[in-house]
Amino acid sequence: MLYLGLEGCYESVPHHNIYLAENYRENLADIERRHRLSNDPSMYVQNASVTDPSLAPPGMSTLYALIPVSHKHPNINWKKEAPAFRETAINQLEKIGIENVRPRIRYEKMITPDDWQEDYAIYRGATFNLSHDLNQMLHMRPHNRFEDIDGMYLVGGGTHPGSGLPVIYSSAKITTDLLLRDFGMPNDASGPAGHANEPWQTSEHAPAEPIGSSG
Ligand SMILES: Cc1cc2nc3c(=O)[nH]c(=O)nc-3n(C[C@H](O)[C@H](O)[C@H](O)COP(=O)(O)OP(=O)(O)OC[C@H]3O[C@@H](n4cnc5c(N)ncnc54)[C@H](O)[C@@H]3O)c2cc1C
């Protein structure tokens, strides 16, 4: 991650920007198999000040660059490689129209997988936790009611159903439902069928036929 505070604002650059590596398959192989840093990495860049100028003082703007890299691995020594990779990241910004940014940088914070692990206790610095392939998603992730130890429950991006905030909220709801059920406690958020009364489950929003009712 590279967080930048800039003098001025790149007004013509949209809020959300995705740059895909010329050879994205090689970039993915660098991340997932070779565990090395790419020369032409994909990146997501957020230029949020074009939407909300109040994010920075007048005449300034913020920029956020997310570059997917390997989890911590012996092939990458971040203490040595971070400065050069920072240069790669800044060069990549030109590919989405953010040119000549160096002299405009007034604040900078870089977070590497080392930092995610050391400062935030994220295992191997893998912010998205287990892999996002079918072998490690949904039912294939560790289950919310831990199977090896009675009375232990899991929640969050590393467990069922997966990472990403909407899914993590589902994980919290599933674990809470299991806890309440296992401890025989009332679940105030549950409707008659044991499902939460989400807006789309009220009579106002309910589908004419419950899903799966015909099968
Ligand atoms: C840069 C970045 C951008 C992202 N963007 C998006 C996005 O746009 N949309 C999206 O849906 N998701 C996004 N994500 C993913 C999302 O943020 C994570 O999947 C999510 O925060 C994981 O939630 P969690 O509760 O499982 O774990 P966390 O949010 O990591 O919470 C775990 C907490 O436990 C604490 N902890 C760890 N070990 C211990 C211990 N031993 N004792 C006490 N506390 C401990 C940690 O410090 C941390 O506060 C992004 C992630 C990153 C890093």
Describe this structure in words.
- With 215 residues, the chain is α+β, with helices and mostly antiparallel strands.
- The protein has helices at 24-34, 78-93, 113-120, 165-182, and strands spanning 2-7, 16-19, 43-46, 60-66, 105-110.
- The relative contact order is 0.11.
- Flavin-adenine dinucleotide (FAD) is lined by residues 1, 66, 120-122, 127-128, 156-157, 163-165, 168.
In summary, what is this structure?
This protein has a five-stranded antiparallel β-sheet, with helices on one face. The chain contains four helices and five strands, in the order E-E-H-E-E-H-E-H-H.
Shape: globular
Strand order of the largest sheet: 2-3-4-1-5
Taking pLDDT < 50 over at least 5 consecutive residues as the criterion, the unreliable ranges are 192-215
The tally of domains stands at 2
What order do the helices and strands follow? Answer: EEHEEHEHH
Structural class: alpha+beta
Small molecules in complex: flavin-adenine dinucleotide
SS elements, strand count: 5
Strand content bin: 5-15%
